[in-house]
Amino acid sequence: MHLLQSARPYAKVLLVPIIITAFALISLWQKSFDGELLAVIVLCFVAWGATGLALGKKAGAALNADARSEPLLWRTAELPAPLIRYYIRLLGDWQTCCWAFTQQSDAASASFRRVTYHLERAVALAQSTGLFAANTSLVAGSCGEVGRSFVGVSKNIGLLSQRSEYSLQKLLRLVNLLLARVENTPMPDEQLARAWLEASQMRVPHTFSPEPLLLLNAGLATATLSLEAMRDVLQDERGTDLRSFQLNETLNSVLEELIDHVFNLKQGIACIMANWRILSAFQPLEECQLAEIKKYFDSFEAQPAELA
User: Which of 116, 119, 111, 108 is nearest to 219 (CA)?
Assistant: First the structure.
């Protein structure tokens, strides 16, 4: 329906060439080709050419009228230049990475503290269980034939307690080291992009320093190797003993949680550093460009999706 309404203004213009063309086709079908028919065909071409010019003028007039009455949706003269738009996206992504990394750091610290608390209790329990098993073995050994049957069980429990205590203490030291590294690393400002804009406008060095994040990333890489090595050892030590199997499964689940947190922290650091390196590689922008970026960045600051 809309198409028919839009074609209605051109019906009168198209009527003449359509009639002439129909007459020419009928003459050809009757095979009455002569000089008059040749003139009609030439006239037909002329009519179609005039029709094209008339339609072009009408279409141009219609577009101009639409532009004057109501601006089209794609008429966005306020859009910045491609370079400025790229800077807006880059700064928005940088700030989003900083915010996400802060959230990941808080989640990792909470997980590390919780794991530390449970590991400390597990180590104390393993130590007390080992002492209890040793005492039980001594007492059972002095109880004749009946007591000797408990000696082997007590020794197995003692060995399991010693092994679990060693594994738990090793993991506890690693988690404490991770917790200290994360909590002692200064987190990047969530308004890092705005600070970069303000420093660029004032022509002063930016306050962002990548060294703390790089040191943390190196520590996380080392911790990843240690955690994965411990996980591989647990995989190799799986035995038929139910108690040993349960201990290995519990430690393995803790290791998987720690590895996930370390991986997320490393990804967050990589995102921040990638955006910072791109910004550092560009030449300084002009004052008008910085003002344009700041204007659009302020308008989209609360809408991260618009910057993507």
Answer: 108
Residue written as token pair 């690693």 = 174
CA nearest to 264, candidates 254, 252, 256, 253: 256
Other Cβ atoms closer than 10 A to 32 = 10
Contact 14, 51 (CB under 8 A): yes
Residue whose structure tokens are 């095979």? 31
Asked if residues 127 and 121 have their Cβ atoms less than 8 Å apart, the reply is no
CA angle 205, 291, 208 (to 5 degrees): 25
304, 92 in Cβ contact below 8 A? Answer: yes
Owner of token pair 């689940």: 253
- What lies within 8 Å, CB to CB, of 304 at 6+ separation is 92, 96
Contact by Cβ (8 Å): 95, 193: yes
Note down pLDDT in tens along the chain; length 308 residues: 444 444 455 455 555 556 666 666 666 556 555 555 556 555 665 565 566 555 555 555 544 544 444 333 333 334 456 777 777 788 888 888 888 999 999 999 999 999 888 888 877 766 555 444 444 444 444 554 544 454 454 455 555 556 666 777 888 899 999 999 999 998 887 777 777 777 777 777 777 788 999 999 999 999 999 998 888 877 776 655 556 667 777 788 888 999 999 999 999 999 999 988 887 777 666 677 777 777 766 665 555 444 44
Task: Report the predicted TM-score, pTM, of the whole model to 2 decimal places.
Answer: 0.61
